[in-house]
TrEMBL record:
Residues 13-42, 54-63 have a biased composition (Polar residues). PROSITE patterns: CYS_MET_METAB_PP. Its EC number is 4.4.1.1. This is cystathionine gamma-lyase.
Amino acid sequence: MNSLDRRRPIRLLSQQQLKTAGNRPEQSFPQFPLFSTTLQQSRTRESPKGTTILEPSQGTPNSRRAAGDTWPAWRGAAVRPRVQFRPRRAPPQWPTWPPARATNLILADDGYGGHSALFPATSKELRKALRPNTKMVWFESPSNPLLKVVDIAAVSKIVKAHNSECLVLVDNTFMSPFFQNPLAFGADVVLHSLTKYINGHSDVVMGCLMTDSERLEAHFLFQQLAVGSVPSSFDVYLVLRGIKTLHLRMRQHHSNAISVARWLETDPRVERVLYPELKSHPQHEVHKKQTSGMSGMISFYLRTDLEGSRRFLANLKVFTLAESLGGYESLAELPSLMTHASVPPETRRTLGITDNLIRLSIGCEDKFDLISDLNNAMETATGESRRE
């Protein structure tokens, strides 16, 4: 019996929501609702004549920023209140914008490479790092690329004991809502890169924030509309399309990844495998407590140097050399030179992001093809065949 049988998956959508999310009655045939989400490009609505114009707080569509049909369809699809944003206009600091003077933010030392250019790590010890002016604690679980697992409930308890108004934000991109729901463990805000697993087709750049707090949702929505960070109707349409197969894809990602991780763990050409579903993972028990499985993200240390890592990546045939993750296709990358190249070299070495650390995003292809591809590339990189 695998972990998916033992732990019930966390659903982003109910079956009824999956079926009807975004459906709009066609004007000519209101008795026959459309089965799939429509792509509504128009963002301008005519106000009813002879009636009192509603205040924005009462739901009046705000020009192009909130008037389309496709965007509300996505907002109505997720279980929790949410705000989604488009790229470039909403970088990772968006939830904290505009920052107040003398505001302290705590960010985990291992995470998305772009963070290091925005926030230096304050401290590895949360209790010592918390200050009277700390407004937010931000972390990923599992982290990128070392797949460290954070006890979300424990962190939330510590933070709230220090200051009940301090926000706990969890980047849940690596897990998707199918496998982990940080809100259930005390987080205030959950961030997802919809580009990854939720969309699942590598053809959208988009993100979202989820929260249980009506106050926070109103704040985020105001910020979103104020700066015009609203996704296009087509991007929302693509995400709504992808989300309907999320449960199918995540099960396949998990099944493939656990097979690949177990294979890597028994290979003498591999120093160490980082995958929370493995019992060898240092936070395996914490992972089991707060998730119902694991995605396709694996990192491992190959017994080689930088040139060997380059040879390994260059000789992959099924895996594609690319920085992203969460799509159907399997990807491989070298964090030290790619996703985390902006992190200072000394910091990378301290964290363990060395030149022989490989990050994999396991896709939905045949698992035997994936294992064979890894084996062949390892032979070229190390000059050694696998010894059983």
